[in-house]
Amino acid sequence: MNSGDDLSSEILGACFEVSNELGVGFLESVYQKALLIALREKGLRANPEVPLAVYFRGQSVGDFVADIVVEDRFILELKAAKALAPEHFAQLLNYLRATGKEAGFLLNFGNPKLEYRRLNNRFEKL
Length: 126
Hints:
By secondary structure, the protein is α+β, with helices and mostly antiparallel strands.
C-alpha cells in the first residue's frame, strides 16, 4: 500500500501529465476523463463520479458526488476556472469531513500552470 506521501506524488504526477498534454480551455469533464486514464496507467484505483452520503446525527441528510476518488483514500475535486475561490476550498473540506477520507486535492486546470492544493482531513467522520 502506498503511504500518503507516495500516493500524493503519484496523483500529482498524473495531474501534471494531463495539464501539460491538454493545456487549458477544456471542460472539467475532459480533464476528469484524461486524469482517470493517467491515474489508472500508474496502477492506481481511480473511480469517477463517486456518490457519497452526508450524515447528521446518524441520519443521511444529503448526497454529493466526488469527481474522482483514488484508492478509496483521496478525493480529487476538479475545476476549470480562472482561479480557485474560497467556496472551492470549502466544498472539498466539507467532502473530507463528511466522508472521513484521508485527504484531497483541489485541482484547477483552467490556467496554463496547474493550480493545486492538498487538503488534509482534520476532522473525525460525522
